[in-house]
Task: structure prediction
Amino acid sequence: MAIIDDQILVIFGASGDLTERKLIPAVHNLYCRNYLPGHYAIIGIGRSQLDDKSFRKKVILENENLRNRSSKKQIEEFASLVYYQSLETSDPKSYRKLTEKLDSIYKDYSGNRNVIFYLSTPPKLYGTIAENIARLGLNNEDNGWKRLVVEKPFGYDLTSARALNQQLLDYFFEDQIFRIDHYLGKETVQNLMVTRFANSIFEPLWNRNYIHRVEITSAESVGVEKRGGYYDGAGALRDMVQNHLLQLVSLVAMEPPSKIEADAIRNEKVKIFQSLRPLSEDDVASNVIRGQYMASKIRGESVRGYREEPGVEPESRTETYVALKFFIDNWRWGDVPFYIRSGKRLPTRVSEVVIHFKPNHHHLFRRSRLLNNQNMLIFRIQPNEGVLLKFGLKVPGSGFNTETVNMDFQYNELTDKYVPDAYERLILDCMQGDATLYARGDSVEAAWEFIDPILRTWEKNQSLSIFGYPAGTWGPEHADDLIEGENMIWRQPSKNLTDDGNYCEL
Result:
């Protein structure tokens, strides 16, 4: 691993849930694994009136996520690296407190003043914070590099995404901006590229001649919980599809990069977004299914429907489930359908990519139980992370009775290997200046160009159906109608990678 420069991590919105639940534990794990440089510090920024001691107690000393992973001594040593500064993000004068805090820490540093500014705030504050950082010259790289990390959602639609990009580019260069998508930090997501490009048995088959369809699922078993107010203004399409799932599509479909470097990889991903076949209003009506979960009983427990959730409008038309069928118009993927779906209150929490290979053109074993089944290659992103290959094998005994069997690899079987959390991997990459797993501005805008017509059609045509589905089911039954071919439905995964529900048959 490359030498990591001395640096300071400044977290705006440090009193929020993300800092305590994800960011601090991720950096703490890096500390325990000796990945932090000799001089390193964290400054939490927030409106709460805390000092260094009370902030350390809140996010470190009383953080259950840390106490379960390391010793008391490690936690106390890590806490000494953490500071806090109360600051009003909308007040330019208030930012001088940040300068003073940085100067007080820098006095012990002999090298460059390298800083990561992490914006864990509502997106509406991104431009304001970037402007005020620049106003005091804290974006200047004459005395060390400066990087800006922004969380999703990156824009509400194409217009707002373009405006936000321009706002940030007014004060930071593109190579300083790191748009984080935690999905891309997951081991199985990264393994998509390795499986494709490192194995000669897969890449020759990775095209329209051998692949029947690609299916991507991101399911959550929970409802909107306490996020009803936010979610009712977003919905599944904005919250999951525009970022997480389209990023997965790009990794599945991209061409081999010229080298494993950030620019080369991100250039190929942008080409995929630019090749997505635009959806007309008629396409949206026939190829996009949306739904809302309804009140039901799950394992004997009554759960509320979406419209009964706190913060949700009683007549809300916000989708908690969305399924799409679309195409990528390029040489490799011409006429291969891609299917993606995401929803809340589904039977289990699971995210996976399924590659369905075409069946043999001539069925030799017509009386077999294997008849008409397709080979599948499944990348399980969460939980039970791993890779599963489904293929046909002869049943012991006389004759040629065959059945589908599983050959799988699961990361939890690597007992001697440490599998880092997604935020841990992504923060480490940013510390080293590696933007490979971060979204670039043109990529974000290209993804919104594909999503925007769906949103406009829904807004324009209020007669388009939004289907109810009982909480705890796999969404509206109409979603199965998207899958091309007789008797074909979505794969129905379980929490365990190798335990199959119903799967698609030809």
Notes: The longest strand covers residues 211-219. The chain has two domains: 7-151, 184-419+445-482. The two ends are 48 Å apart (CA to CA). The domain at 184-419+445-482 is CATH 3.30.360.10 (Dihydrodipicolinate Reductase; domain 2).
